[in-house]
Specification:
Elements lengths: L2 H13 L9 H19 L3 H6 L3 H11 L3 H16 L2 E8 L5 E4 L5 E13 L5 E12 L2 E7 L2 H10 L11
Antiparallel strand pairs: 1-3, 2-3, 3-4, 4-5
Helix pairs in contact: 1-2, 4-5, 4-6
Amino acid sequence: MRFIKFLSATILATSLALPSLAFDAGDKTRLEQALQAYAADLQAADYKAVVAAIPPGVIDLISAQAKLSPETIRTSVTAQMATIMSSAEVEDFLMDFETMTSGTTTAGTNYAFLPTTSRIAVGDNPVLEAKTLTLAVDLDNTWHLMRIELDQHYTIFRAAYPEFADIPLPE
């Protein structure tokens, strides 16, 4: 797998001129570490850790709507990911730190939208490439990550975190 590309790109990004960030160098370093850990967890098929990266308010919202405990939701999502990924191989996974859009909400929460490219092979089928966004949000000094593939995903996030109501998805 070419996850090394992600790590190399991240290291390279730290040595290049980056877009102006809405948060400080310490926040940037913690974000880079969170992205590296997430990629490593995905490569290792540690879906429990991947699910743990989801913002907790999103899990709480879904659990309240489903009338199930947050742990039941986490366990279910983890199992679904394991099933889906059992016949797939991630060839590339890149969250583009250099072209991210970042900011801080009026409530003081740091966030970043990272263009994300995934290339996944399933059996003998052609490799699927998906271009999405990853939303990184800094909650209590921990960066949480959520893939935004559909506007509905961001709507769910906003329902869990109303301070993002006026923050649009980047174009």
